[in-house]
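Researcher: Last one for today. Full complex below.
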Amino acid sequence: MFRNQYDQDVTTWSPQGRMHQVEYAMEAVKQGSAAVGLKSDTHVVLATLNRASSELSSHQRKTFKVDDHLGIAMSGIISDGRSLCRYMRNECLNHRYVFEAPLPTARLVRQVADRAQVCTQRSWKRPYGVGLLVAGFDKAGGKLFYCCPSGSYYDYKAMAIGARSQAAKTYLERKFEEFASADLDTLIRHGLQALSASVTDGELTKDNVSVALVGKGTPLTLLEDADLEPHLAALADEVGGDGAGSGGAMEEGGGADGASAPPAAPDGASGAAEAAPAPEDEPPAPMET
Amino acid sequence: MFRNQYDQDVTTWSPQGRMHQVEYAMEAVKQGSAAVGLKSDTHVVLATLNRASSELSSHQRKTFKVDDHLGIAMSGIISDGRSLCRYMRNECLNHRYVFEAPLPTARLVRQVADRAQVCTQRSWKRPYGVGLLVAGFDKAGGKLFYCCPSGSYYDYKAMAIGARSQAAKTYLERKFEEFASADLDTLIRHGLQALSASVTDGELTKDNVSVALVGKGTPLTLLEDADLEPHLAALADEVGGDGAGSGGAMEEGGGADGASAPPAAPDGASGAAEAAPAPEDEPPAPMET
Amino acid sequence: MFRNQYDQDVTTWSPQGRMHQVEYAMEAVKQGSAAVGLKSDTHVVLATLNRASSELSSHQRKTFKVDDHLGIAMSGIISDGRSLCRYMRNECLNHRYVFEAPLPTARLVRQVADRAQVCTQRSWKRPYGVGLLVAGFDKAGGKLFYCCPSGSYYDYKAMAIGARSQAAKTYLERKFEEFASADLDTLIRHGLQALSASVTDGELTKDNVSVALVGKGTPLTLLEDADLEPHLAALADEVGGDGAGSGGAMEEGGGADGASAPPAAPDGASGAAEAAPAPEDEPPAPMET
Amino acid sequence: MFRNQYDQDVTTWSPQGRMHQVEYAMEAVKQGSAAVGLKSDTHVVLATLNRASSELSSHQRKTFKVDDHLGIAMSGIISDGRSLCRYMRNECLNHRYVFEAPLPTARLVRQVADRAQVCTQRSWKRPYGVGLLVAGFDKAGGKLFYCCPSGSYYDYKAMAIGARSQAAKTYLERKFEEFASADLDTLIRHGLQALSASVTDGELTKDNVSVALVGKGTPLTLLEDADLEPHLAALADEVGGDGAGSGGAMEEGGGADGASAPPAAPDGASGAAEAAPAPEDEPPAPMET
Amino acid sequence: MFRNQYDQDVTTWSPQGRMHQVEYAMEAVKQGSAAVGLKSDTHVVLATLNRASSELSSHQRKTFKVDDHLGIAMSGIISDGRSLCRYMRNECLNHRYVFEAPLPTARLVRQVADRAQVCTQRSWKRPYGVGLLVAGFDKAGGKLFYCCPSGSYYDYKAMAIGARSQAAKTYLERKFEEFASADLDTLIRHGLQALSASVTDGELTKDNVSVALVGKGTPLTLLEDADLEPHLAALADEVGGDGAGSGGAMEEGGGADGASAPPAAPDGASGAAEAAPAPEDEPPAPMET
Amino acid sequence: MFRNQYDQDVTTWSPQGRMHQVEYAMEAVKQGSAAVGLKSDTHVVLATLNRASSELSSHQRKTFKVDDHLGIAMSGIISDGRSLCRYMRNECLNHRYVFEAPLPTARLVRQVADRAQVCTQRSWKRPYGVGLLVAGFDKAGGKLFYCCPSGSYYDYKAMAIGARSQAAKTYLERKFEEFASADLDTLIRHGLQALSASVTDGELTKDNVSVALVGKGTPLTLLEDADLEPHLAALADEVGGDGAGSGGAMEEGGGADGASAPPAAPDGASGAAEAAPAPEDEPPAPMET
Amino acid sequence: MFRNQYDQDVTTWSPQGRMHQVEYAMEAVKQGSAAVGLKSDTHVVLATLNRASSELSSHQRKTFKVDDHLGIAMSGIISDGRSLCRYMRNECLNHRYVFEAPLPTARLVRQVADRAQVCTQRSWKRPYGVGLLVAGFDKAGGKLFYCCPSGSYYDYKAMAIGARSQAAKTYLERKFEEFASADLDTLIRHGLQALSASVTDGELTKDNVSVALVGKGTPLTLLEDADLEPHLAALADEVGGDGAGSGGAMEEGGGADGASAPPAAPDGASGAAEAAPAPEDEPPAPMET
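Model: Here's the assembly. Have a good evening.
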C-alpha cells in the first residue's frame, strides 16, 4: 500500500506543494457542530448549534463575546478556540487602554490569522484545529470574517462552518440577496433557518442554539435560553412551508461538507474507504463540538 | 496490517482531523476507579471510589480540597492530577491575596483547562491523563464542572467518570430531576447510590469511599471514615429495594464506558481484539486509580 | 517502489545537490491563482486574479500596498505572504523614520529574500510557500522583482506566476517590446490581457481582478471594483480580435506552468502519475489562492 | 510479529491510555533486592537486603538517613535513588532553616512524587527507575510511604518492594494486625522475618541486612553490623518454628512479584516468553540492587 | 536495494569517514552555471555566465563587489551565496572602521570558510550550497581563492566552477603559464575564452556575461553590458582559430565536472543510473544558477 | 530476526526495566586494559596495565593524581575519564580553598557518580564509557571505590576492572584476607600479581605498568619506570612458584569478564554469537585503553 | 542483510561498548594525505604531504604555526582542523597575555582533546574528522603528540597519520632509535624519508611537502619551497640505496593503514567488501587532504 510520507510533520511540503497537516487540521473544523454567520447592512448575526454530551450536561458554548463590538462563533476543537479567544480579548483590552477606541475588526482578524500562521511554520507546534466566525461592527460597518486553521481569513456576506454546514450554505446562497436590507429579527430568523438545515435529527431548541448579534448602536449581545424563544417560535411558523426545501438542499449538499472537497485520504486504500463509515455518520471525536 | 501513523505524536493531526494522542489520554481517565459529582440548588457533592493496592495500604485519595469554596475529585493518573491540583491551590491563594475574595469556580476551571490545552500543542509534552470533577460554590451558586485531558470543560448537573462509570451515569440520568430540590443528605445518598452502580464486586465501605461537599454557608468538607457511616447505612437500607435496578442499569451500560465510545483501536487487528480482554476486565495499569 | 529519502527535511541535500523541500514549496506558488506584473519606462503595474471560495465570500485580496512607492502581488499560501508583507511594511516604516526617505525597492527585495533563505536552512522551519511580485518606483526608476520561496529574486521586465501562468507569460513574451513606451492605460490593458490568458472558464470581472500601479509621480494605487471597469471594458473591446491568439498560446503552454518544468515526482511511480489528475485540473488545496 | 509502537517514548500514550515507559520503569524497581517497611503505633522500621557484587565489595547501601525524623529505603536503580535522596536532604535542610522545624513526612513525599511526575511528562527525560519506602515520624505520628516511578505515592501500614517481594508481602499481610501494638524489637523482628521470606538462597546476616528505625522520641537510627546481631539471633530462634510457613508463602507468591502483575510484554511472542528465563531467575542488570 | 543510511544527516559520518551531506552540497555548486577566475601578476579577473530564466527577466547576477579591493563570483544556490556575501561586506566594513585598512583577502576567506564549516557540524543546519571564487588585491598582491561548501578553501592561479566547468578548466590548464605576464585585456580575454568553453549552445553575449577585475591601482570594477563589448569582440576574432581546440577539450572533460569525480550515487542502483539523465543534461533545479 | 527496539536511546526503558544503553557503556569499561585496586589497613594501591598503540608511542597513562590524598585509575574510554578527572580536581581544589581541608573520598565519589547519573537521564547525552577506581586516604582511613558508568559506586576491599579482569579478581578473592595486615611492599606485589593475571601475552614491565599509592602519612605517589623496578623484580621472583596457580585461575575465569556476566546480546542471534569472535580476542576499539 | 543500528548517532553505544560514529570519524583521518612527526633530544619535526586538486591550485597547507614554541600538522578534514587551530592560537595568546609565558605543550594538547571529547557526547554535534600531530618545545623539552577525533591524545617518539601512513610508520619503527641523537638536518631527512614511503606515485617535491621544526633555541619554523630544496636533494641522494627497503616496508604494511586495524564494516556484507575498492585506491572525498 502506498503511504503518504509528507503528511505527518507540519513543516513538510508535499511534492504537489501542499501542507497536509494544515489540511487535516481544517478537517477538525468540519467535525464540530455547525456555526452560521450572516449580515445585513446594519447588523451581523452569529448562530451556533451547541452539542451536549448527555442530558446531564449543559450544552457547550461555542459563541463568545470578545468586546462590545465584536463576538465570535467557533467550530472544531473548542479548547484551541478558547486559547485564541483569550488572545483576542487581551488585544481588544490593550487597544482600548492605549487608544481609547475599539480595535477594528479587520485588524484583529489579521492578528489572529497571523498567530495561526506561525503554528503552521514551527516543527514543535501544530496548527489550531478550530475555525472562527468573527462578527464585528466598527467604523467600517458590520463585518463577518472566517479565520481558518491555515492562517487565512476571508470576508463573507454569510457563511456556515462545521458538520453538515453545506446544507446551511446552500440555504444562505439561495437567500443572501435578501439579507442586506433585512431587519434584525428577519436576519436572526434567516440564521436559524440556515442552522436548522444542518440538523439531521431533533430540532433547534432554546437549549442547543446560541445567537450573538452586533450592529449599529447595538453592542454585542448573546441570546440564549428565553431570549431565543420568540425567534424559535417565528422559525417554527415558517418551517412548515420552507422546511421541505431546505431538507432537499441538505440532501444535495450532503456529501460535501465545508468550503471545499475533503482532501483525498493519503492512504488511499479504496477498499478501506468503502468499509470506513462516512465522516458524517461517525461519532465526532470526543473533544470536538 | 494497517498501521495508524498519526497516533504517536501529540502534535500530529490525523487525516480525519483527530488528535489520537489526546483521545488516548482520555482513555486513561476511563481506567481510573469511578468518581461521581452531582448538585442540588444549594449544594454540590463529589463521591469517589478509592482503590487500595492491598489490604496493607490505605486507599488512595482521589478527592482534594482546593480552597474553602472548591474541591475536586479525579480519575486516571493521580500524579498528573496532583500536579493540576497544586496549580489550582496556588491560583486560589493568589486570588485571595490580591482580591481578598475566592476565585470564581468557572474562571479557575477555564485556567486549568487552558493549562491542559497547552500540553496538547507542544511536541515535547504529553496531554494530562486525568479527568477532574470540580465542585465549587461561589456568588454564581453551586457549580459542577468536568475538565478533560483535551483541554475542554463542561458544565454538568451530575456526572460520573472512570471505570464502569456508565452504570453510574445511567443512575444519574434516571434520577437527576430529583436532585435540584434534594436536601444535602439525600444528595449524598444519590451520589453514593450512583457510585455503587459502578462497583462490580464488593461494596461501598467507609474505607473505599470519599465524599466532598460544598454549598451555601458550607465550606468544602471532606467526609471520610466515620463521617461516612450514617450515609452508608442509609444507602444500605435503600439498596435492598433499589439495587436490582441499578444492577440492571449496570448491565445495560456495561459495554460503553465513559462519555463516548472508545476510539477504534488504530491497530485494528480484529483477531487480536477478540483475544484481548475487554478493558473492563483488565487489571488497571499500576499507576492508575 | 523506490522512495525518495531526501525530500522530507528542509536541511537535507539530495545526492544531486538539490533541496527538494524548497522545490516543493515552489510548487505551492504554482497552485495559487495567477498574478501578473509588467512595466513601462514610467510605470509598473501588477494585476491579480482573485479567487472567491463561494459567491458568499468576497474575493481574497492578493495585491497589497506596502508603502507609497511599493506594492506587491502574491500567489500561493496567502497567510505566508501576509507574514512577509507585514515584515516589508515594518522595514519601510523604519527606513522612512530613520532616513526620511523611501526604502529602495531593490534593497527591500534583498531583505525579504534573505528572510526566505533563512527558512531553507533551519531544521525547525519550512520554506515560505508564496511567490511575491514586487513593484516599486524609486530614484532608480520602476522595478519589478519576483521573490521566490528559495530565497532567490529576479529582476523582470514582465512576469506571471501562479496557476496557468504559462499562458500569461507567453502573451508577455510576445508583447513585451511594446511595454517600454506604453502609456499607463495601455500597460494596464496588457496586464489584464495577460491575466485573462490564464483564465480557462469565466472571464475577468471587476470582482475577481485587482490592479496595482505605481510610477513617476504616481504613488502606489490599488484599482478595484468600479475603478477597474473602464479598463475591463477596453479589454473586452480588444479581445474579440486578439483573444484567439492568446487562447492558442494558452494551449501551447498548458502543460508547463511557471518558470521551469515541475521537478519530477520523487516517488516516480509512472502508473500513479497517469492515474493522478494533472495538477492543472486538481482543485487547489483549500488554503491556496 | 506485532510490534508495540507506543512503548518507546515517555510522552506517548497507548490507545488503551497507558504509559508503557512508566510501567517499564516500575519493572526496574522489581529487579532490585527486597526492601521492607512496617510500622507500629510508635515506631516505623525499614529493612533492606543489600547485595554485594562479590565478596570483595562491601554490600551496597540501600537505606539512608534523610533527616533526624526521616529515612528511606530503596529498590531499583540506586543512582537514580541517590539523586532523589539528595533532593530530599536539601528540602529538609531548607525547611529546618526557614521554619526551625522538621519537614512533615507527607509533604516531603508529595514533593518527591511531584519531581518524579515531571520526568514522565517531558520528552527529553526518563522516569526514575527506583522505588522509595519513606519512614518518618512527626507530629502526625509514624508514617510509611511508598513512592513509585510513576509519581504516585501510597500510605502503607507495611510494604515490601523489590525482587521476590511478594513472599515478604504475604508475610506482612498475614501478620500486620499484630504490628500496631508491637514493641520496637518485635517490630524489627517482623521486618527481618518478612525480608527473609524474599531470600531464596543464603540467609540474612549482619552484612547483607540494614535496618532503619524512627519513632516517638527516637531519631532515625541505622542498625548495621554488630547492632543487628541480637535481632538476627532472635530471628534465628524463631525461624525454626515459623520458617516453614513463610517458605510456603513464598512458593504461593513466587510467580507474582511486586504490587501488581507485570504488564504483558508488549512484544507478546508467546514462544519467546517461554524460552526466556523468568525475571526471577535472570541475573539482575548490573546497575540494579 | 541497498540504502545508504549515512547520507541524510549532516552530523553523521559514513563508515568510510565521509560526510555525504557535505558532498551533496558540493554537487549543488556543479549545477550552477559556470564561473571562472584567473590572475596575472598584477590583476585578478572573475568571469561568470549568468542565466536568465526567460527573455523577460534580466540575467541573474553572480558577481558581486564586496569591497574596493575584493569581489566574488559564485555558482550554486545564489540565495545561500548572498547570505555569505552580506557577511563578507560586514566584515570588510568593520575592519575598515576599526583599522582604517582593507581586510586582507586571505583572512576574510578564512573567516568565510570557518562560517561554512560550522554549518557542517550542527544537526539543525545544512551546509551552504554555493561555491565562491574570491578575487582580492591587497599588500600580499593579487589572490584568487575558491571557498567550498565543506568549509575548505584553496588558493588558485586560475579556476573554474559550475556546470561544464571541466572544459573551462582544461582551457585554463593549457594556458595558465601565459597568465602571469598577461596584460589586463589579455587576461580578460583568457577568462572569457575559458568561460565560453563551458557553453554548449548559444554564445557569450554582453547580457549573459559579467566580469569583475581588481588589481594594482585598480579598485574592484564590474564590467557589464556595454563595457564588455570590446572584450567580447576580441574574443570573437580569436575563436575562429582557437574554438575547435577548446571544443575538443570540452569533449574530453565532458564526463567529469568540477574539481573531483562526483561521489558515487549512494543508492547505487546501476540500472537506475543508466535510465537517469546524466546530470549535464538535466535542467538545473529552479533555484540554482 | 528480532530487533531489540529499546537499546538505542539512553532515556528508553526496556520492558524488563533495564537501560540497555547504560549497560552497553559498561561494556566499554571491559574493553579497556585492566586496572587493579586493593587496600591494607594503612594504604591503598592502584595498578594499571598501560597499552601502547606501537613501540613509537609512550604507554597511555591510566593512573592520575587528583589531590594529595586521592588518585584514580581508569579503564575504558580515557577521554571520557579525563573529563571526569578534571571535574574531580576542581572539586578538590575548591574544597581545599573553602574549608582548608581535603575533600573526603566518599563525598567526592558520590559527586562524580551523581554527575555520571545525569548522563543517563538526558536524551541529548550519552553515559560515560569509563570505569574509575578511586583510592583515597582521609580521616575515615583508606578507601577504594569503583565508579561505574551507570552512576553507581561501590566500596571495595580490592577490585579489578577492564579486559580479562576476571582473572585478576579471582586472584584478589583468593588472597584478600592477607591484604589488611600487609605492608606496603607486599600490597604492591599483590596488586602487580593480580594485574599480571590479566595479561595473556607478554609480561609486566616498567613501561606498561603504573602504580599509585596513598596511605597514612603518605601522600598520593605515582610509581613509574625506575621506581617500579624493585617491585617488578620481587614479582618475578615469586611468579616461579605462584604463577601456575594464577594461570589456572585465569583459565577458570576466562569466560566471564568484569563484575557481572555480560548482558545477553540484544540481537540474540545465537549463530552470530558463535561466529563472532569472543570479546576477549577482538582488538579493542581504537579509542579504548 | 543485517543493518548496524548503533552507528548513526554519536551518542549511541553499541552492545559491544563501542562508539561507531567516533570510529568513523577516525577513518576520515586515514583518508587525508600523510603527515609525519618525529623528535630528537633537541628538536621536533613535522612533515606533511600536501595535495593539490589540480596544477592550477597551490597545494593545500596542512602545517600550521600555533605559537613560537608550537606547531601542528593535520590529516583529514582540514576545515575541522582549522577550527581547532584557531582555538589553539587563542589559548596560546591568552596564556602569554596572562602569564607572560608560553602555554606548555601537554596542557594545550589536553585542552584540545577535551574540546574534541565534548563533540562525542552531544547529540547535535559530530566528532571532528581530523587528526593533529602537535610539536612543541617548552621547559619540559621537545614533545610530539597525536590528538585523535575520539578526544584521546598520545605521546609519541615518532608518528605518521593519514593515507598509506603504515609504510611511513614502518620506516619510523625501524629507525627511531637513531632519532634521539640525530642532528636537525638528519632528523628532517628521516621525516622526509618516512613521508616518501607513503607516496605511491610521483615523489616529494618542494611543492607538495611542508616541514615544520621547533627545538632548543629554535622557534617554530616552517620550511617551504626553496627552503626545502637542500633537504630534498639530500633525500634524493640517499634514496638510491635505501628506497628499495622502504618500498618493501610499504608492501608489508600496505594492507593496514593508521594506528589500528580498520573497524569491521558494520554492514559486514563480505561480498560487498570484495567488490568495493580498497580504501587505498579510492579517490579521497573532495574535502579531505
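The two ends of chain D are 33 Å apart (CA to CA). Chain D has a mean pLDDT of 84.
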